[in-house]
Design a protein that fits this description.
The protein is an alpha+beta fold. It has one domain: HIT family, subunit A (2-Layer Sandwich), CATH 3.30.428. 34% of the residues lie in helices and 16% in strands. The protein contains 5 helices and 5 strands. The chain has a 5-stranded antiparallel sheet, with helices on both faces. A hairpin with a 3-residue loop joins β1 and β2.
Length: 165
Amino acid sequence: MDRLWAPWRLAYVAAAKPPAEHDPCFICKGLSEQADRENLIAWRGPASVVVLNRFPYNNGHLLVAPKAHKAELHDLDAGEIAELHQTLARMVTILRESMKPDGFNIGLNLGKAAGAGLPGHLHWHIVPRWFGDTNFMPVFSDTRVMVQSLDQFFVFLTERLKESN
């Protein structure tokens, strides 16, 4: 029998609750500290940041966010919008070249009613997808199969980011 091992999911399953209005923003908290690896911050730009999703839907799941705590698209200035789109494109290129996915889901959940788990800080999800990456596990056991730990993926991605400069 094969075993699936995803210990980082325990924190999510054990403590799953909707964020309270006063919960600190994990993006802002991470940006305020000098502990990028612990906070899964893979890259900091002048106006944007790339963070590994702590509870990924698939291997390579990234968040791209403005560094400024802004909840609405109209709050972004032209420079932030341009950098965010350039960062999204750069991350897709790096993931495409290094992980060889067949496609991507890229999206923004705008507001709590739309599913935003962090409604106060805009962030786009980039989820690499492969043919056959969906299977029976999420349907029957609410389990996703991850082939790489977050720590391994952090090292993998930050090395590719350095190479792409």
